[in-house]
């Protein structure tokens, strides 16, 4: 495992290009494009204000930079650095911006969700979508890029509009049986749209491409409901994380629950492997101390950690949520399927230091990773069942069915990793802190 030097970063804005050749990062109002292999700067662009969001086009030829405070989006071309595009929403303001799947249209959501403006880079034409709903996840594209679903709110009712992305023609428009729609997400095969309600109402609805309601699922009533959802890559399973600290798995044939995964404070099953992170004081040989490089010296004396396998029963550290505050730290806040559909990783927010890994073939808990600090982010390798975890310190953690490893990033100073993202090849990871980032290169043998 090799690490690059640290580079400056703002706002955790570091993204690999979809084709895997470039890495975009932001430093205040500057957009820096680097070669993935050498990390040499290929292009440097200067925006009109501090960048708050970036996104690559699907073909990796353009980068969108959104400056929400100014209501401006700037687009930069990698092929023609002198070409530039500025979209100013003016007094309408800007709260969200994204690419269409073809990488030639930009969708801007104005303040107060008055409308979504579709700007074409090719024809310079403008289209409008009225009444978009102000919710966490209100726009969803099918994986093949053919269709777009938009959540809408008009006359105090929730609706879904389905558009054909090639010409932005309306395909279907239907109302949903939701009190206050919270999010929408397509299955990876693009055949089913999941629509879920606010956390005050446990309800998830599944619609076909022609707007038919296929099924409705409710686990319980009169309590906080759905917190997160995730489709399996094969579209066969829908995992629903709830505030009652359980994950329910629905199957794609009947849309009925096939199992539910509980997240108890105490692990009692002897077949579950519990990896516990433990600190070990650094052992330093005197001959290495003559004049070590500064970065090496800081990593030599930093506290190392490793994983021990704990004997069950194991009691995990639990945090009691504050009952009278909004968004209580309770329930399943993060969940993700591995790319081969074999595993599901979850995090229960009131057991913040643990990652739970479930065997989807056996529908059983397989592994629990118990960290020393609260888990900030985890993400699966796109090519194999290998999970990367960060906990806001200077270490990156990797789990695969073969085992578990904790690696200290050998850099000078305080480098706290708050987010990470895999390269599309699975050969490297971008590790992001508030002020810096580095790239971790994994050897092929480690796979």
TrEMBL record:
Top-level division of the source organism's lineage: Eukaryota
Biological source species: Crypturellus undulatus
Any single GO CC term annotated in Swiss-Prot or TrEMBL for this entry: MWP complex
SUPFAM superfamilies reported for this sequence: WD40 repeat-like (SSF50978)
Gene: Wrap73
Protein name, UniProt field: WRP73 protein
Pfam family, one: WD40
């Amino acid at each position: 495992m090799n690490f690059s030097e640290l580079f400056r970063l703002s706002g955790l804005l570091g993204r690999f290009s979809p084709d895997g050749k470039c890495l975009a990062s932001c430093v205040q109002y500057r957009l820096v494009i680097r070669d993935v292999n050498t990390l040499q700067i290929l292009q440097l662009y200067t925006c009109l204000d501090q960048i708050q969001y970036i996104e690559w086009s699907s073909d990796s030829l353009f980068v969108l930079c959104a400056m929400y405070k100014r209501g401006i989006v700037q687009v930069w071309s990698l092929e023609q650095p002198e070409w530039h595009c500025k979209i100013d929403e003016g007094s309408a303001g800007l709260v969200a911006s994204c690419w269409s799947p073809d990488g030639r249209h930009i969708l801007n959501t104005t303040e107060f969700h008055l409308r979504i403006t579709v700007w074409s880079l090719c024809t310079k034409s403008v289209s409008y979508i009225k009444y978009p709903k102000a919710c966490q996840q209100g726009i969803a594209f099918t994986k093949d890029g053919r269709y777009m679903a938009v959540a809408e709110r008009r006359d105090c009712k929730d609706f879904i509009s389905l558009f054909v992305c090639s010409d932005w023609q309306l395909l279907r428009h239907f109302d949903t049986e939701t009190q206050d729609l919270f999010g929408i997400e397509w299955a990876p095969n693009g055949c089913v749209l999941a629509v879920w309600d606010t956390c005050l109402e446990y309800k998830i609805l599944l619609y076909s491409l022609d707007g038919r309601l296929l099924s409705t699922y409710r686990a319980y009533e009169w309590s906080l409901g759905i917190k997160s959802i995730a489709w399996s890559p094969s579209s066969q399973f829908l995992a629903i994380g709830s505030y009652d600290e359980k994950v329910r798995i629905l199957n794609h044939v009947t849309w009925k629950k096939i199992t539910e995964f509980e997240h108890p404070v105490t692990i009692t099953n002897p077949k579950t492997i519990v990896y516990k992170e433990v600190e070990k004081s650094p052992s330093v040989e005197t001959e290495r101390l003559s004049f070590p490089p500064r970065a090496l010296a800081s990593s030599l004396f930093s506290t190392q950690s490793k994983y021990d396998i704990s004997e069950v029963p194991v009691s995990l550290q639990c945090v009691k949520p504050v009952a009278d505050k909004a968004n209580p730290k309770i329930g399943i806040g993060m969940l993700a399927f591995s790319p081969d559909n074999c595993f599901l990783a979850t995090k229960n927010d009131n057991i913040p230091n643990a990652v739970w890994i479930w065997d989807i073939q056996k529908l059983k808990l397989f592994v629990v990773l118990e960290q020393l600090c609260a888990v900030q982010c985890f993400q699966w390798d796109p090519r194999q069942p290998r999970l990367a975890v960060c906990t806001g310190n200077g270490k990156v953690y990797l789990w695969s069915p073969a085992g578990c490893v904790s690696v200290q990033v050998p850099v000078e100073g305080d480098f706290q990793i708050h987010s990470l993202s895999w390269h599309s090849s699975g050969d490297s990871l971008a590790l992001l802190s508030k002020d810096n980032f580095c790239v971790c290169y994994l050897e092929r043998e480690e796979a």
